[in-house]
Amino acid sequence: MHMTRTVGIVGGGPGGLTLARVLATRGIAATVFELDEHPLARPQGGSLDLHGDSGLRALREAGLEAEFKAVARYDDQGDAIYDAQGTLHFQHNEESGGDRPEIDRTQLRSLLLASLPSERIRWGSKVSAVEPLPDGRYRVVGPEGTLGEFDLVVGADGAWSRIRPLVSQETPAFTGVLFIELQIDDVDTRHPEVAKLLPHGKISVVGNNQGLIAQRSSHGHVRVYFMFRVSEEQLRQGLVDVSSPARAREQLKALLPGWAPSLLAFIDASNDTLAARPIVALPVGHRWTHRPGVTLLGDAAHVMPPFSGEGVNMAMLDGLELALALSSDSDWSRAVKGYEEAMFERAAGAAEGAMQGLDFVSEHALEHVMEHFREIQQQAAGAGAGAH
Ligand SMILES: Cc1cc2nc3c(=O)[nH]c(=O)nc-3n(C[C@H](O)[C@H](O)[C@H](O)COP(=O)(O)OP(=O)(O)OC[C@H]3O[C@@H](n4cnc5c(N)ncnc54)[C@H](O)[C@@H]3O)c2cc1C
After folding, report:
1. In terms of Cα–Cα distance, which of 237, 242, 190, 197 is closest to 216?
2. Which residues on neighbouring strands pair with residue 104, listed in sequence order?
3. Stretch (H or E) spanning 343
4. Most buried residue, 34, 148, 229, 367, by most Cβ within 10 Å?
5. What's the cofactor (predicted)?
6. Pair 9, 112: CB distance under 8 Å
7. DSSP character at residue 362
8. Phi, psi at 54, each rounded to 5°
């Protein structure tokens, strides 16, 4: 009976592709509509750590553990906390035993794509609307007309979802934190002074309403986020002019008085790919009344600040759980409703933690961050004790 019903997935990010893959392994046909023209149309972002009970579990149940292990980085799980004057407050050099392996976003997308028949992905398909049909199905529409008709349409199209208005009136709100993203190429050979600060994985710098997170991806690439508390007005005006890299670098340094030269070196080492990323969030506990034939997953359902690194993990777990529900209950409306109820609870907990993470960019940030890392250290000690 399942074989005759179809799923349309809007968005080929980590959540949508996980759903498509797990459905495919359970014999349910799904089509993914993705606005990118092709897999490498835009950089997918930096390194992600996948968590055992969410992102990693999704890959395991999708039958992609071996593919993941072939590219995952187990030696980049360290972290170090500095203050803006360059004083080291905490260091945690996780060696290969850590349980949060890193993978580049592009690699994650590639391995999910490689696991799907290519005709399942419709590249260059911008979905502009989804319309209910009299028979209870939904029509997916692009600027040039109908893209397909499905028994179930899943909005996996991120924070600014075009599908969300079918079930919810909520839209993401600016959290008051703006990330300015910089990138450094070939850090070990071209910028050894910066590389020294990044022996393993990542460093975080905590200033007064300002911060920095710099993280290694593969091949000596580093993604750097400078973070600022800004008003809506500052956001509208643009804190730095990212369209003019040299000017933006000068503006950034001017915004960081008193920061140690060793930390400002991240700015001088950066290439010309800069981006402003306002951090937005849906209300904690966002939920909707079930509507048969349509649902959401990932950021479309619960976009949250990225501080706890849960966004991709939650999106992949949603994709897995929805696929498992659809493949185990022939009543799809009941299956989706069950998925939604569990997802609302799970996302509310994650979003609450993620909102607390905004304290990273606050006046009492160092205290908050140190408390967080002490917790991690205690957990690691507990796990280590258990393992021996
Ligand atoms: C600066 C920053 C840093 C982050 N760092 C981390 C991190 O370290 N770890 C972590 O877990 N999370 C992180 N996140 C969050 C993470 O990026 C998201 O939670 C995650 O990507 C959500 O996955 P998704 O599949 O729901 O949506 P997305 O990744 O947003 O994918 C949505 C897809 O839908 C496509 N799409 C959008 N609109 C349409 C349309 N109309 N028609 C067709 N296709 C469409 C898009 O092109 C995209 O491919 C970060 C976020 C930000 C902003």
Report:
1. 197
2. 47
3. helix 332-356
4. 34
5. FAD
6. no
7. S
8. -130, -85
Can you give the residue ranges of every domain in the chain? 2-74+99-172+282-359
Whether 162 lines ligand 1, by a CB cut-off of 6 Å, is: yes
User: Residue 95 pLDDT more than 60?
Assistant: no
Identify any residues that bridge with 278 across adjacent strands, giving them in sequence order: 178
Determine if residue 63 is left, alpha or beta; phi over 0 gives left, psi from -120 to 50 gives alpha, anything else beta. left
Position 295: which residue type? T
pLDDT exceeds 50 at position 46:
yes
**What are the backbone dihedrals phi and psi of residue 48, each rounded to the nearest 5 degrees, phi first?**
-125, 140
**319 vs 326: CA distance, rounded Å:** 11
Task: Ligand 1 pocket test: pick from 299, 308, 310, 358 the residue with the most ligand atoms within 8 Å of its Cβ.
Answer: 299
What is the 324 CA–ligand 1 centroid distance (Å)? 22
362: phi then psi, degrees, rounded to nearest 5 = -155, 180
Amino acid at 337: K
pLDDT band, very low/low/confident/very high, at 383 (cuts 50, 70, 90): low
262-282 per-position pLDDT tens digit = 999 999 999 999 999 999 999
Concatenate the DSSP letters of all residues of 138-203 into one string.
EEEEETTEEEEEESEEEE---TT-SSGGGT-----EEEEEEEEEEEESSHHHH-HHHHTT-SSSEE
Ligand 1 centroid–CA 380 distance in Å is 29
What's the length of the chain?
A: 388
Any ligand 1 atom below 6 A from CB of 306: yes
Q: Which long-range contacts (CB under 8 A, 24 or more apart) does 269-273 make?
A: 269/184, 269/187, 269/190, 269/191, 269/194, 270/182, 270/183, 270/184, 270/224, 270/245, 271/182, 271/183, 271/184, 271/185, 272/245, 273/43, 273/182, 273/183
Which is the CATH superfamily of the domain at 2-74+99-172+282-359? FAD/NAD(P)-binding domain (3.50.50.60)
